[in-house]
Amino acid sequence: MNDIFEDLIGIFKPGTFQFVDGGIEFEFSEECKGILDKCQIQYAQIKHGAYLRIELDDLQFGIYETYSDYLKVEEVNKNRDNIVFEKGKVSYSLIGDKTYVDFQLKEDSYFFTNARCYFDLISFIDSKKSETEDAFHFVDYVNEGARKFVFTSLSDRGRVIVEYAKNVPLMNADFDYRTTVDEFKACFNEEGTHLPKFLKSSIIDNGSRFGKDERMYKIFEGLKDILYSAKVKFEIYINNLSIDKIVKEYEEYKSKYFKELTEILSNLTQKIIGLPLLIAGTLFAIEKVKDSVEFLWVLIVVTLVTNIYLVTLLKINFKELYHIEASVERDFRKLMENKFFDKFKSEKKPFERIRVRITDKSRALRTICESYYWILSVSNVVTIDLILSYLKIETGVIVLLSFIAGVFILHFKNEVTLNSED
Asked: What's the pLDDT at 177?
């Protein structure tokens, strides 16, 4: 048909032809008559010469009025060129191995390829009804007359019945299912592999989510996910892993660090809540003993000791946070060393998300710790400055002491935070 296609498309002009009782009737024109003669297509002049009629059964190629007329097993399996129309939608043409959309070549249109792949998959599954050498049935029961398969598993969801009709559901012509179907068939090529057993399990799992009338199409449509799920389970099997074990370790991994972070947050919360009370108590004591020099000096000493004590506790919290972050990273790397994650990189995502959550929370707590350090230190400097003013120390001396205290606080802040990473 390659040699006549360019000429033939000239007669399929919108509004100039119609499908009538197994044939096509064209409005008479010398151009249409000339094209039919050139293409050596038999026709008859009807209705007093007003129309030219061709019989579809006389053609060496297929012409269909609707998508559904073509999308039937007996039509799809015919090895011939086709032109498929649908009122109000684009037309598809298969000429040789090339697909045309509205008679324009479109290499990335898979209307015909997908239809053939659908029945190819059904035919392939039907061919796997025989028992293998290790007494494995991929398909447990096939009824070609009723057009159904039965998959049975004792360990999964029991029995799944998959029925299929003689027609193909209309699929997305922009997506090529051929690669996925070929990949599915290739899973049965290696002798001695257990992969088909996991494919069967994934088909049962996928098919059980849908009604039996739509299962075949849903299995076809979701074949890529079925393959991925089966290969993940197969890889776990050959690496002597256990899904339950991975899940359990994941939960322990998550709970372990969140518990430690929660304890640190609880300690910080107590310190933060207690800080206003500490400041208020100190100010109240200053007011009560402001006329007693000895007590004021005692308050200075107590304030300094309290500050050192609380900052020391903060330093411990910083060390714990850095330790948690380092441990999380170490445990994560150890977990990712398994070859399973090299092959299925997307399976890392749940672990990566929890690692990021723990790390982000730890960093947020470090920010809170650092903020608390500054608030505590500055408030204590201001408190001591107030006491020194009651002791009638010169303002210049108080400013100098405050400056020295600020330098010391800045230096000690680095000791508390930056050095804790070691």
From this structure: 92
